[in-house]
Every structure is written in structure tokens, then in C-alpha cells.
Amino acid sequence: MALTTVASAPVARPRVLMIGTALVTGAVVMLFAGMLAIYLASRGAAVAGGTPWLPTDITLPLTQPNVMFLTLVMGSITIQWAAYSIGNDDRKNAYVALGLTAVIGVAYVNMAAYLYTLTGLDVDANSMSTLIVTISGAHIAMVIGATIFAVLMVFRALGGQYTSRQHDGVSAAAFFWHATTFVFFFIWLIIYVTK
Questions:
Q1: In terms of pTM, does the model score above 0.90?
Q2: Which terminus of the chain has fewer CB atoms gathered within 10 Å of its CB, N or C?
Q3: Would you say 127 and 42 are in contact if contact means Cβ atoms under 8 Å apart?
Q4: What contacts 6, CB < 8 A, 6 or more positions away?
Q5: d(CA 134, CA 140)
Q6: Is the CB of residue 49 less than 8 Å from the CB of residue 145?
């Protein structure tokens, strides 16, 4: 009896990175939802009690958060451009788009640092100031993580790991960046716009 080997089609790789990114993103979004709920409850209790919810020496300008929000939207556009480009085997545009996204992430962190110098927020001042610093600081960490994710995808794309058939890493980075922008929309609306 002769043994015959049958050539089988390669097993499709599960989208482990995309699923992991979705789970982490869900957890991060829930964290921000909880922090913003605590902020709204504390602000509502202070206003209902007739006390000012922020000390008078603290200002929350709107110009810098507007620029930060537009910067994140531009980052969403460039990272989606990267995902589209790598999905069409357009590697040069993918590299440019991922590089621009990383620069945009650094620009956001720079503007956030400048905003901290303008606001006069102090962690020890009062609980509302602490909440604002905690929420905005956690979002800065999220943007830094999204930027590092984009930079790692540049190196993996340069190494040839992503093609039109296999580009889940760039898509996962895009998903996380979009979630970062989505979270900042609510931070911008709740903290900076409705003051």
C-alpha cells in the first residue's frame, strides 16, 4: 500500500491581532466611560450644591482642545489611508501615511503639554482638577500607545510582513486610532465645551 500525500490549502490565519486590539480597545473605552461618568456626577453634585466646581484660578481654554481634536481627526484620515494603501499593495503610500500618523501623534502630545501649562491644573488642588488631569493624562497615554502602534506597523510593513492578503496589523492600528479619536470627542465635549 502506497502512501500518498495530498497538498492541502494553507490554513487561514485567524485575525488574532485585530481581535486582541478590539478587546483592549473595548476595555479602554469602558475605562474612559467610567471616568467621564465620575466627572459628570462630581460636577453635577458641585453645581447642585451651589459651589463652584473648579477654582477661579483654573481656566479651561477651548482653542487648544479644538486643535487637538482636529489633529486626531487628521490622524484618523492618515491611518485609514495607510490601511487602504497596504490593502492595495501600495507600499510607498502606506509608509508615508504611517509616518504622518506618527508625526500627528507627537503633535497631539505637544499640544496637550502646552494645554497643561495654560490651564493651571494641579493634582492636589481639588477633586475636579484631579479628575481632569487623570482623564486627559490617560488619553495622552492612549495617544502615545496608538502612535507606538503605528510606528511598529511601519517597521513590520518595511520588513515585508504586510501585503494585500495579510494586513491585519495596519487595520488593527487604524481601529485603535479611530477609537482614540472617538474617546477624545467625548472628552472634548464633556470637559472643554460644556465646562
A1: no
A2: N
A3: yes
A4: none
A5: 10
A6: no
Asked whether the beta carbons of 107 and 71 are under 8 A apart, the reply is yes
Domain 17-193: CATH class, spelled out: mainly alpha
How many Cα atoms are found within 13 Å in the side-chain-facing hemisphere of 18?
A: 12
Check the CA dihedral 128-132-135-138 and report its sign. Answer: negative
Handedness of CA 25, 26, 30, 36 (dihedral sign): positive
Cα separation, 195 vs 185, in Å, equals 14
Could you tell me if 160 and 112 are in contact, meaning their C-beta atoms sit under 8 angstroms apart? no
Q: What is the pLDDT of residue 77?
A: 97
Query: What dihedral angle (degrees, nearest 10) is formed by the CA atoms of 92, 95, 96, 102?
Result: 180
Query: pLDDT digits over 131-159, tens only?
Result: 999 999 999 999 999 999 999 988 888 78
